[in-house]
Design a protein that fits this description.
Distance between the termini: 137 Å
Helix content: 25-40%
Number of helices: 8
Strand order of the largest sheet: 6-5-4-7-8-9-10-11-12
Mean pLDDT: 80
Shape: elongated
Order of helices and strands: HHHEHHEEEEEEHHEEEHEE
Number of strands: 12
Radius of gyration: 33 Å
Structural class: alpha/beta
Low-confidence stretches: 16-23, 34-39, 41-46
Length: 275
């Protein structure tokens, strides 16, 4: 008895040819749909009041075991952990990185904080510290300022001889950070930085008179008015050596000015000798 070979199913071959290359993609698509459906169910349960229970249940698999903190020179790891205030067995799912960043940035020395979750068990914290660039002397006290004009902390050890001193700013406005006060402080800090590039040593910048910023150093009183500070400082730099050679004074403190240098007028410098 001779058996005949089964004839190929041409229809099935055609279907396999059409869908054979798409099977992996089909499986992947079904997987994605399953994940989306599960996420949607979790969201729905959350809206029904049981989402927190699901998160709490899942959070046990992602308990924080490592807190990776990149500390700076002034803010310690212990201070960062105290601000985070993470209770034992806290999980990554219940952590709100943005809220933790806002808490960390309440620290006077922390300018910017970044918190992110690294699954399965690590919380990464990076901070950028404020850098003091000037001292604000007001109300008989001295406060360190950063480049943005924000008060960092009180300088209890007395003025730091390496930092320029700003005077004439209102204490309350500076603490509250009102826009006019901050703008004024930033202008004073910018002027001090520009003068420092000319080789000026210990200096004091007076912000008391509206529309006129005045700097004192080496026995000179420099009046800059307001605005175009870079151009005015550059104009002063061209004659500073001659002025200092003739009228400049040396010393560890800002001396009483004997000469006023007026830079408020365009393309000219007016020098007035005291008396």
């Amino acid at each position: 008895m001779i058996r005949r070979r089964a004839r190929p199913n041409r229809k099935r071959i055609a279907q396999d040819a059409a869908y054979g290359g798409k099977k992996p993609r089909l499986v992947w698509a079904l997987t994605v749909l399953t994940i989306l459906a599960a996420s949607g169910a979790g969201f729905w349960y959350g809206r029904q009041g049981t989402g927190l229970d699901l998160i709490a249940w899942a959070d046990q698999f992602f308990q924080i075991q490592v807190t990776d903190v990149a500390v700076g020179r002034r803010v310690s790891r212990d201070e960062v952990l105290a601000l985070l205030d993470l209770e034992p067995e806290r999980g990554l799912l219940s952590v709100d990185p943005e809220a933790l960043e806002q808490v960390l940035e309440t620290h006077p020395w922390i300018r910017h904080a970044e918190v992110r979750r690294v699954f399965p068990k690590t919380l990464v914290v990076k901070i950028k510290e404020r850098e003091p660039v000037a001292l604000l002397r007001t109300e008989g006290k001295a406060f360190m300022l950063d480049r943005e004009g924000a008060i960092i902390s009180e300088e209890s050890r007395g003025p730091n001889g390496l930092l320029p001193v700003l005077t004439g700013a209102n204490y309350v406005d500076a603490v509250l950070g009102t826009p006019p006060a901050v703008q004024r402080l930033r202008a004073g800090i910018a002027l001090a930085g520009l003068l420092d590039r000319t080789g000026a040593g210990l200096m004091e910048v007076d912000l008391q008179t509206p529309g006129d910023i005045v700097a004192y150093y080496s026995g000179l009183r420099l009046r800059f008015g307001e605005g175009a500070l870079e151009e005015k400082v550059d104009r002063y730099r061209r004659v500073s050596d001659r002025l200092l050679d003739r009228w400049g004074e040396k010393g560890g403190e800002v001396p009483v000015p004997g000469v006023e240098v007026d830079l408020r007028f365009r393309d000219r410098i007016i020098v007035r000798e005291r008396g």
